[in-house]
Amino acid sequence: MADYRAPLVDMRFIRDEVLNAEQEWQAMPATAELSAELADAVLEEAGRLVEAELFPLNQSGDAQGCRFEGGEVRTPTGFRAASLELAQGGWCGLGGNPDYGGQGLPKLLTQAFDEMLYASNAGFALYLTLNNGAGLLLDAYADDATKARYLPRLYAGEWLGTMCLTEPHCGTDLGLIKTRAVPDGNGQYAITGSKIWITGGEHDLTDNIVHLVLAKLPDAPAGAKGISLFLVPKRQVREDGSLADANGVVCGGLEHKMGIKGSATCVMHFEEAQGVLIGEPHQGLATMFTMMNYERLSIGIQGLGLGEVAYQSAMAFARERRQSRAPGGATEPEQAADPILVHPDVRRMALNARAWNEGGRLFAAFVARELDRAKYHPDAEVRAVAADLVALLTPVAKAFLTDRGFATTVEAQQIYGGSGYCVEWGAEQFVRDARIAMIYEGTNGIQAMDLVGRKLVRNQGAYLRRFAEQMRADLDGDAEGDCNGSGKGNGSDKGEVDNDPELIQFRQAAVDELARLERVSEALIEAAKEDAAAAGAGAHDYLQLLGYTAYTWMWWKAARAARQGLTANGKSGEAFYRAKLITGWHFLQRQLPQSEALERQIAAGSEGVMALDQNLF
Amino acid sequence: MADYRAPLVDMRFIRDEVLNAEQEWQAMPATAELSAELADAVLEEAGRLVEAELFPLNQSGDAQGCRFEGGEVRTPTGFRAASLELAQGGWCGLGGNPDYGGQGLPKLLTQAFDEMLYASNAGFALYLTLNNGAGLLLDAYADDATKARYLPRLYAGEWLGTMCLTEPHCGTDLGLIKTRAVPDGNGQYAITGSKIWITGGEHDLTDNIVHLVLAKLPDAPAGAKGISLFLVPKRQVREDGSLADANGVVCGGLEHKMGIKGSATCVMHFEEAQGVLIGEPHQGLATMFTMMNYERLSIGIQGLGLGEVAYQSAMAFARERRQSRAPGGATEPEQAADPILVHPDVRRMALNARAWNEGGRLFAAFVARELDRAKYHPDAEVRAVAADLVALLTPVAKAFLTDRGFATTVEAQQIYGGSGYCVEWGAEQFVRDARIAMIYEGTNGIQAMDLVGRKLVRNQGAYLRRFAEQMRADLDGDAEGDCNGSGKGNGSDKGEVDNDPELIQFRQAAVDELARLERVSEALIEAAKEDAAAAGAGAHDYLQLLGYTAYTWMWWKAARAARQGLTANGKSGEAFYRAKLITGWHFLQRQLPQSEALERQIAAGSEGVMALDQNLF
Q1: In B15-158, beta strands by DSSP E
Q2: Do the chains contact at B586 and A579, CB–CB below 8 Å?
Q3: What ipTM does this complex have?
Q4: From the candidates B441, B496, B502, B596, which is the catalytic residue?
Q5: When you count CB atoms within 10 A of the terminal residue's CB, does the N or C end of chain A come out lower?
Q6: φ, ψ for residue A163 (rounded to 5)?
Q7: pTM of the entire predicted model
Q8: How many domains does chain A divide into?
């Protein structure tokens, strides 16, 4: 059956030995009170919670799914009790603004909790992810009265938030939305329209649901520049915070989906529902995008979490399953067959999973660190650098983590043989649950277009130069390229690296990949000047290439920390460090060769993809 | 919604313009009466049948699944009627031995029907695939009385056959099976044991079911050399062919699976069931493997068929769906947005699907041609060459076609955005239905081991040299490398190719890939001499590399035929030929660069994958 233990050892290694989080946190007033010890206590408790409360509901939640009965949505058995327990434990407000009852923990910490949530129960996790997003958005744009009325309840998990964007005729192209908002003369608005694919649009977990809805005001300009954002509660809230009448918000039904069946994906009808404008009129899309960087990282982490639980479960199977003999002869001759982990091809699949998961975990933590710096760092220059990195890396985090996460669930399923296809073993659910993460929150194709169009070509490579500076400085041993010197703890100087033949190879791979990325970036910027289709034609492969480059950097960091741990008798232990180096080596040898193919594919340009007449497809 | 039309134009192109099937058939006495015209009539009728009868049951069959009630299995609504219609139309005996009522059609024709079956309804198709396999096996190994009693009924679809191999504790490693066969003194055997994952083990489509069961005789040697094969009918059959008592065959339940839900996957218990020995005692595995080459190609075609229907359905969606504007500005300014096929990244995904499907279709037909030559050709040398190619390419056909087919269903699903994840659109079912093909009939990892272990290393590259000879001769314009000169119709001599700059590039790519394959093969054979793990460590990537090489050859053939068609005003039409060349060009530019990465990955050897201690996974 499926198996999951929160990967605390690797999370600690990343936090304490690779990213030196404690120093990082202490350099920022908003997080200065957070110690590694406290962070550890939070994650240990989080691990206990998800293992005991959420993971046992994962398969049953998938089997039951959500039910739509008389206009109401019933979540699977146990979801409400688990939701209450998480709410009471304060787990819904980890990253929230302390002024309104949030705990103000940095993303570098909360993203580890996100991974555990998705790994243990992706269908359940989404209710909390959307709630986090709604909280962030209100905190950034709502007026004080609205914040005071809603934020404490969202942070407490008493109510949950949603995002209502998509309509039947428009997903990606939000400029086409038809939902209308008419001022009611009392400072509020009457919202009318239909939305689809609304995660947690209706459910039985909380007494109220807080919808953030995109709609158009009567005087809205056409297209994407005429969209405004509104808060529309399921039930009206009185000034004293008590619940008043039902608002004009009706759930029209549930989608039947491939996976994440415990998550209620709703059709929502707003019928002159009372709403409050959030942010400026017509600025709804820009307002939404503030939140996107946080949300997109979270969705990336859905891929990571599912990759991790898929790997762990496959290894539980592989340790028990015996088929045939090791290539060099029986390793356990007293048994009828050897465990399947003796077979090189099974080990290859397992190492693929490990390498993607561990590289992805470090990359997600790295992006989270930059998100924290961009938000909390006292030094404006550090904030600016971090903001550039976040802008560049967010689409990569969303798309590359989910692409690799899905591939990992598929490869983990393969390790089971036929059992992987049978529902009872759980492996196939991870595949189904992971698939959506490549699609929603902006498809991975849209992420790639965002990366190449907005983040690379439009600013002529400015973000990429930031990235290259940081990476190169780190590879050169200059305090990890950290503007605030937080890399001191990593302290490897160039001499030390030059003398370690294993690290030299990790370093050289990173140097080579960075050079490749810069070369390809320059060519793509150049091609886009003459050819409107160049960016789109290269987008997918370019995002992958940036992903491979970033992971090569991450593996260099991990390898360096593991080497230091081996030398200094570090805390994670010798077996862990050796495994880390072997896994990183697998990445270099068996995954990274893809980057050269990507370079060639991008070089093909747009002529080929644009050549076929539309009617011939 | 989902959409499917049998791809008759491409099937005709392959048959008539690339492989010159008519000449091929006329060169072999067993198929000499088959003309291109007759083949066309068969496939047109087949297309009508699957479009009208099977495809409409595909989504409903998935939604309903099979039910287990009181020991009996009910297939989804409509399956029995469709099964009767196919049986009455003679579609269950297309490839069967004419001496027993089969139609004796060559694989090159029947594999096109296989593709249609899988594309239109993969869950349904499996009942027929297993029946074909059982028929082949009985035809090859049963005694005359058994053949006379069973084959006509199987070919007529009055009864259906199954294969009973796997037991709960052993899938791949059949040497571990526990099912016993005890002679009853009357020339028959009493079979006792349990089997799992038995496709069509019990159902309501026919009055009898004919199980082919692997079991061990009392005096069996241990392991894989002690397995025998038995025919065990669900109901006994009297000498006059009428049905007698029920045999000791009981269905214990159904598996709940990720997909192919219309296919009944059964737990089967044999309780002193009467059976007949098929073939020699203890030779059951060898007997089975005769059939495997045919079956494995069919399962590969499952990947192809699902890739095709996924592509066609995605294009039906893409033609309707409008989001955003073309990169160079609106193509349909009078509409609110352009169709999504204007976007380069959507076109990239669509061309990926086309290129894998069309390359795969030609490769499957090519392998089928070799199967036919190996079975029917009057010239022993031609048979011998074909048998070597079949041995080498069968694991590739099974694994590479299913890997690419699954990837194609996933990429097609991506084109839909969120709709691709919702059950009603049908795209997600193709993904679920395609996933199993990478697992059953020998996992793709097992196929790779078979390829590298048995087909490459064991004979020191002999099969590969045959492959290289054929490919090189074809590239050199020597009558397509066909021993029987059937390539005359292709007739491109070297001069013609040298003068066509487009064909030169296809040819050069094939030359380069063949050289790469030979280089890698030699290195792998060498490495395996010293290192027992070398074959296993390189197996997966080597199979992929051989797949890319074979597809490059196929694309050269297709491009050459398309060029000739353009010049000669050939029958498929100019738009078709242009699209074929554009699609082939996409393969060269955007898919083939992977082969270089594979070469590097294989060169990494086994050290990395074997380094991690088993307990650290």
Answers
A1: 67-69, 72-74
A2: no
A3: 0.96
A4: B441
A5: N
A6: -120, 120
A7: 0.97
A8: 1
